[in-house]
Amino acid sequence: MAPKRKATIIALANQKGGVAKTTSVASLGAAFAEAGKRVLLVDLDPQACLTFSLGVDPDTVESSVHDVLLGAAELADVVQTCADGVDLVPSSIELAGAEAVLLGRPAREYVLQGALDTVRKDYDVILLDCSPSLGVLTLNALTAAQGLVVPMPCEMLSHRGVGQLLDTVADVKKILNKKLRVIGILPTLYDGRSTHAREVLEDVGQRYGLPVLSPPIPKTVRFAEAPAVGRSILSTARSSKGATAYREVAAGLLEQL
Length: 257
What we know:
12 helices
C-alpha cells in the first residue's frame, strides 16, 4: 500500500485587517471539502473570527491553538469538526499572549510546523488563517506552509501592505523555509461596476510580478450573514456569486496542489 501523501499547507496572510482573509479561509475550506478533500483549518488570530464564524464559541473552547503552540496540548486533541465538513483548530483570546512567550523560545518559528507534522497525513489540505500582523505567529505560518495566498481588496490603499508582506516572505524563504511559494493574490471585495476596482486588479499582478487568482471575489452582503449561523457562504447562499467564485478559485488551486 502506498504511503499517504501529506497535506499541502497554505497560509492566507495580509498584515492589513479587513481584507476578507477569514471569509476566504472558511469559504475555500468548505469548497475543498465539497470537492471531497479532507480539510483542516487553523485559526492563528487571537480575535478568533474564524473560530466564531464556523460555529465554535471561542470563550468556551477548553483548549486551543494557544495550548498547542506552548506545548500544553497535542494538535490532534484540540481539533473540532464543523458543520461545513471541515476540521478546525480553534483560537482564543489567550493566543494574544503566545507571541511574547514564543519570543523567548529557541527555534520559535518552527513550533507550528512541528505541531502540524503530527496530523499532515490525515488531511489533503491545511489552511492557516493568519493574524493581521507580521509577528511570530505569522512567521510560524509562513515557515510551516508550502504556499501563500494574499487576499487583497481591489482598492488602491490595499496595495501598500503587500510589498511589506513580500519582503517578509523573501526573508522567510532565505532563512526559514526555502520551499515557500507565493501562489498568488486573491482579489476580494470586488465591485465589477467600479472602474477603480478594475484598474487596481490589472495593476496589482504587474506591479508585484505575481499571479492574480480568478475570478475575483465579489462584494456581497451574503458574506456578512454567514458567520451569524456558524457556516460558510457555500452553505448559507449556495448559488450566490460569492460562493460560485470561491468554488472556482478552489478548483484552480486544487489543480496546482
